[in-house]
Design a protein that fits this description.
5 helices, five-stranded parallel β-sheet, 5 strands, single chain, alpha/beta
């Protein structure tokens, strides 16, 4: 039994590593396809790429679990990459209030970054409630969204069935708080959204492990 458990664990680790590799390839491809020639690090103190991340519900302040993807991007990119985490409650209680505060905070972070470094490419990332935050910011077409060259959403409760940028297996169902159909179509070329069958939040399923397994 011990050997079986070890084998299962190794398979799970291998699957997560493969998914992480796929995410990195996808995100880096999106970032670098935004310009014909990669930008070298500017001398103004601005990075070539800036990543703004919103964590999942109940995670401690910071980037949360999706921060492992950000770290890999920073380490693997030939461009200079800076990063920041959205400061917001990320609570399940008063969820909609928390999510709205996250949208407001990410909009402010985005506007400030674009004002300070207008030539920097922006990447938005979010997990769970944080994915809903990032998606809603894009959908609002707030200041700075025209600078967004890549967005990664994982387990997004705002997921809408049939959207062209879906990369998971739950493309026929919507999340708990679906956006208006087509709200993100203008950004479809720069979004990768991951939602798998069974996810309680982005697909109305019953398997929490699915929701926690994108990274």
């Amino acid at each position: 039994m011990g050997a079986v458990r070890d084998n299962i664990k190794q398979v799970g680790q291998s699957s997560r590593q493969s998914k992480m590799k796929f995410l990195l390839i996808s995100l880096i491809a999106l970032v670098f396809s935004a310009t014909a020639t990669p930008i070298s690090g500017p001398t103004s103190g601005c990075s070539a790429v800036h990543v703004i991340t919103a964590r999942a519900s109940t995670e401690a302040p910071g980037e949360g679990i999706i921060g492992t993807v950000v770290t890999a991007i920073v380490g693997g990119s030939s461009q200079t990459v800076s990063r920041e985490a959205v400061a917001y409650p990320a609570t399940l209680t008063n969820y909609l209030v928390s999510e709205n505060q996250g949208v407001t905070a990410m909009k402010a972070d985005l506007a400030a970054q674009v004002s300070k470094c207008p030539d920097t490419k922006i990447v938005l990332m979010g997990y769970s409630q944080g994915a809903q935050v990032a998606g809603d910011v894009l959908a609002s077409r707030a200041t700075g969204t025209d600078k967004v060259v890549a967005t990664i959403l994982m387990g997004d409760p705002g997921h809408v069935a049939g959207e062209p940028f879906q990369k998971g297996t739950a493309n026929a169902v919507s999340g708990l708080f679906p956006r208006a159909p087509g709200a993100l179509n203008a950004f479809a070329s720069v979004i990768e959204s991951f939602c798998d069958i069974g996810d309680p939040f982005c697909a109305g399923g019953l398997n929490l492990a699915v929701h926690l397994g994108y990274v």
